[in-house]
């Protein structure tokens, strides 16, 4: 059923445009999922790499920052680096959309 005032060929064109947009979105999502983003914390002593799909690829820690007396600090740095990388991935996704 075609909405009132819309010609069938216009409706067909609109549907084609919607399908093209869906295909483009799927392509962008796939591309982002395969792209890696890096974040760091503590002046670069902790680095995290994630994919645009949100998977953590790696976490690199400079041995000088490992303090057995303060494991919470290292945990905080890892969280900050991962969150920064995820933020970069999210920002890239927003730009692509």
For the structure shown, list the relevant keywords.
97 residues, Ybab, Chain: A, alpha+beta, 2 helices
Summarize the structure.
The protein has 97 residues and is of the alpha+beta class. Helices cover 55% and strands 19% of the residues. Strands 1-2-3 form a 3-stranded antiparallel beta sheet.
Please give a structural write-up.
The longest helix is centred in the N-terminal third of the chain and has 27 residues. This protein has a single domain, classed as 2-Layer Sandwich (Ybab, Chain: A), CATH 3.30.1310.10. It is α+β, with helices and mostly antiparallel strands. A 3-stranded antiparallel beta sheet has the order 1-2-3. A hairpin with a 4-residue loop joins strand 2 and strand 3. It contains 2 helices and 3 strands, in the order αβββα.
Task: List the total number of helices.
Answer: 2
Counted beta strands: 3
Q: How are helices and strands ordered from N to C?
A: HEEEH
Q: Give me the side-by-side strand order of the main sheet.
A: 1-2-3
CATH H level, superfamily name: Nucleoid-associated protein YbaB-like domain
* Domain module tally: 1
Which fold name corresponds to the CATH topology?
Answer: Ybab, Chain: A
Helix fraction? 40-55%
CATH architectural designation: 2-Layer Sandwich
Q: In CATH's first tier, which class applies?
A: Alpha Beta
Average pLDDT figure: 90
Q: Describe the main β-sheet briefly.
A: 3 strands, antiparallel
% residues in beta strands: 15-25%
Distance between the termini: 31 Å
Shape: rod-shaped
Please state the CA-atom Rg, rounded to the nearest Å. 22 Å
